[in-house]
Amino acid sequence: MRLLSLFFLLFLTGAVSQSQVRHVNTSRTDRVVVRPRTIVIVRHGALIKDFPEKKRATVTYPVISGSGDAKVLRKVQSILQVKNVFDSSIAEYRDDNWLSEFSYKVNYNKASILDITFTQDGAGAYPDTQTRHFAINLKNGSVMKASDVFLTERLPTLQTMLNEKLQGELKEILESLTDSKSDPEDIRMATEAQEPQEYKLENLDDFEVGAKGLTFLYDAGYPHVIQAFEPNGRYFFSYSDLKSFIKSDGPLGQFVH
Predict the structure, then answer these.
(1) CB count, 10 Å around CB of 188?
(2) 114: region left, alpha or beta (phi > 0 left; psi from -120 to 50 alpha)
(3) What's 31-143's CATH class?
(4) What is the phi-psi region of residue 174: left when phi exceeds 0, alpha when psi lies from -120 to 50, beta otherwise?
(5) Cα–Cα distances in angstroms (integers) from residue 241 to residues 31, 62, 167, 210, 213, in the given order
(6) CA–CA gap between residue 250 and residue 78 (Å, rounded)
(7) What SS3 state is found at 244?
(8) Alpha carbon distance 21, 249 (integer Å)
């Protein structure tokens, strides 16, 4: 009887252990581990002769680990390497005095999706801030595109919806300038800058994934002198709003079932 009880106990323990292993393996593919690593760049010589405040810059980048699929992990690591973000390596940042800070923010890291935004701040003739965004499918290690997540036949309708959002924001900016009796020259420059602005099909590729929906991103690309008149370019739609557009078998299908 004792031997039978001991065998039964060992059987249960083994079953629990196997269940735990299966649980761990499943969860490992659901997200990745993102740890920050910071490097302080120190510049010398002619680069800082007339600009001593540019002696140092900080680069904080993500170190990615934890994926259960080594091939996928290598793809994600390659996408998110410093050189691939703004087309400048750490060595190149060191050899130029523009950069003051390079950093990132994880917007979402679950449900087999990693969404991350990089920011770099620096100054040449003017101070400037630039951003670059990636939404990565952790099942295959690829950056998600509109064609991966939305129904092809619905893309033109979605584009129209986003363009209406953009044009509405542009109209509000001009109305605000007019109502506040801004300088006529400012109104003229803002009006001219708005003329070529249009949300196009290719802009649909840039969307930020969140727990409740997607934020579509649009960069108007205004020059520094009129950036105060630039649209914010962030347009949120809940998953329920997008249900008729999302592929049920795509990476976002899990949010609309």
Answers:
(1) 10
(2) beta
(3) alpha beta
(4) alpha
(5) 25, 32, 20, 14, 8
(6) 23
(7) coil
(8) 27
Burial degree of 59 (CB within 10 A; 0-12, 13-18, 19+): buried
Alpha-carbon Rg for the chain, nearest whole angstrom, is 24
Provide the residue type at 86 as one letter.
F
Contact 65, 36 (CB under 8 A): no
Domain ranges for the chain, please list them.
31-143, 148-255
CB 67 within 8 A of CB 134: no
More confident residue, 64 or 14: 64
Residue reference for tokens 């801030």 = 129
- In the block, residue with structure tokens 């800070």: 101
* pLDDT recorded at residue 2: 47
* Residue 94 near residue 43, CB atoms below 8 Å: yes
Give 48-96 pLDDT, tens digit per residue.
999 999 999 999 999 999 988 999 999 999 999 999 999 999 999 999 9
Q: Spell out a b/e string for 25-46, using b for 16 or more CB atoms within 10 Å of the CB, else e.
A: eeeeebbbebeeeeeebebeee
Contact 115, 106 (CB under 8 A): yes
Specify the amino acid at residue 22.
R
Residues in the chain: 257
- E strand residue ranges, the chain: 33-42, 56-65, 99-110, 113-123, 127-137, 142-143, 207-209, 213-217, 234-238
